[in-house]
TrEMBL record:
The keyword Cell membrane does not apply. GO terms for molecular function: DNA binding; DNA-binding transcription factor activity; pyridoxal phosphate binding. This is GntR family transcriptional regulator. In the C-terminal section; belongs to the class-I pyridoxal-phosphate-dependent aminotransferase family. PROSITE patterns: HTH_GNTR. Gene3D superfamilies: Type I PLP-dependent aspartate aminotransferase-like (Major domain), Winged helix-like DNA-binding domain superfamily/Winged helix DNA-binding domain. PANTHER family: HTH-TYPE TRANSCRIPTIONAL REGULATORY PROTEIN GABR. It comes from the Bacteria. Keywords: DNA-binding, Pyridoxal phosphate, Transcription, Transcription regulation.
Length: 450
């Protein structure tokens, strides 16, 4: 079968970019200009640029056009972590640890070793975990406003596996998955692996544009909506009750599922705070909401323990997908995690994390005062919008040369246009090292000439 005619245009541009004939930073024709020039439909021109963007060769910038991408090696969804100089700070990945966690682990392992049936930890668990372990997670989730039976909880090897399990159960290749135009990079990787059609929903400072989502659902067969309503990654918003009710209503009206990512939800103020977080989406539409989260950010990234709360009619499919992929959480990890859930260790760590995140936000906002910053006051992430003359890949390369790793906006962009921005992860550097690292970051960005 002959490839579509537009593929020849894609190949022509790709060859010119890779050979250097079109150097990095070159502004390409507008979509309309390309359509006129090549005598193709506007939609076809858009598809040409979409394929070049998917190949990592170009980047579309809102209001500016499409440019040949600067290939710094320190940008994108999987940047290099090898720096040319000694590392000053890793602001690309959140890996929070609290003092004394190593001792907590030793004590927990000694307790497990002394327990009645240590050999049970070496036996294969059923896919999704034993009922008593699922019940421990269900009890923990009650404090988050998720009221579910243990039978609807599946234990996984981290939140990413929980998300993968849910997508396998709910979707088929070619299905439309609605997602915020800026969102968690892992959803892009999974959508690509499962052959899903990502449909970006425009974002506002307060959350997704729900009118746009409603229009999308009226014009396309959206199978599911992936959303992060509480402490969004990377923008930090917390949707209010009215937004959550509207989102649940849109899903109900159009018959699509909701995938609620609660990974960072623990960072928002719990009840009985002065302004407690509204109930999760699961509370508004439990019959069509899958809730996924884990213990990587509130306990430790190396503790690969996650969970998915799945409506009854999808439990069997989700269990089958989990069995096919990796079965679930290992017995030893499950015993550690559920033990810490039961004895209050997780709750204490979450309190520490909220206080730590608030302190880091204060340091960041003081050190970077005057820059265009977006983030939740107790979040571990900060979105830094760059000046018009500053390009994310170039900025990331300069920062890498100064010993600082960051994430560029294209890692989070799900649509054709990528804002010029960096995502700063604040959790990993030791607290005393954060202000000096951010001072160096600011000085490096200021050195970029207009």
């Amino acid at each position: 079968m002959r490839p579509p005619a537009y593929k020849a245009i894609v190949d022509e541009y790709a060859t010119a970019i890779r050979s250097g004939t079109l150097p990095a930073g070159t502004r390409l024709p507008t979509h309309r200009a390309l359509a006129r020039e090549r005598r193709i439909a506007l939609a076809t021109a858009t598809r040409v640029y979409a394929e070049l963007a998917a190949a990592g060769l170009v980047v579309g910038e809102q209001g500016r056009g499409t440019f040949v991408k600067v290939r710094s090696g320190y940008d994108g969804i999987e940047p290099s972590r090898d720096l040319p100089v000694p590392r000053v700070a890793d602001l690309s990945f959140n890996q929070p640890l609290a003092p004394g966690q190593g001792d907590q682990l030793r004590q927990a392992l000694r307790a497990l070793a002394a327990s009645g049936d240590a050999e049970a930890l070496l036996r294969q668990q059923p896919p999704g975990g034993h009922r008593h372990d699922r019940a421990a997670v269900a009890r923990y989730l009650l404090d988050r406003g998720v009221d579910t039976a243990p039978e609807n909880v599946l234990l996984t090897g981290g939140a990413q596996q929980a998300l993968d399990c849910v997508l396998r159960a709910l979707t088929r290749p070619g299905d439309v998955l609605a997602v915020d135009a800026l969102s968690y990079p892992g959803i892009k990787l999974l959508a690509g692996a499962h052959g899903l059609d990502l449909a970006p929903v425009p974002v506002t400072p307060a959350g997704p544009d729900l009118d746009a989502l409603d229009r999308l659902c009226r014009t396309r067969p959206v199978r599911a909506v992936y959303t992060i309503p509480t402490v969004h990654n990377p923008l930090g918003w917390v949707l209010d009750r009215a937004q959550r009710e509207r989102l649940a209503g849109i899903a109900t009206e159009h018959g699509c599922m909701l995938i609620e990512d609660g990974t960072y939800a623990f960072l928002a103020a719990p009840a009985p705070a002065a302004a407690p977080v509204p109930a999760p989406l699961h509370a508004h539409a439990p019959e069509r909401t899958c809730y996924v989260a884990g213990l990587s950010k509130n306990v430790a990234t190396g503790l690969r323990f996650g969970f998915a709360v799945v409506p009854g009619r999808h439990v069997r499919a989700a269990t089958t997908s989990l069995r096919a992929a990796a079965w679930g959480s290992p017995g030893l990890v499950t015993a550690l995690a559920t033990g810490w859930l039961a004895d209050g260790t997780v709750a204490r760590l979450e309190d520490q994390r909220r206080a730590d995140a608030a302190a880091r936000q204060r340091i960041a906002r003081t050190t970077l005062a005057g820059l265009d910053l977006t983030g939740h006051p107790t979040s571990y992430t900060l979105w830094l919008t760059l000046e018009p003359h500053q390009r994310p890949a170039h900025a990331a390369a300069l920062l890498a040369a100064a010993g600082i790793l960051v994430s560029t906006s294209d890692a989070f962009s799900t649509g054709p246009h990528t804002p010029a921005a960096l995502r700063l992860a604040l959790a990993t550097p030791p607290l005393p090292a954060l202000a000096p690292a951010l001072t160096l970051l600011r000085r490096t960005l200021d050195s970029i000439a207009p």
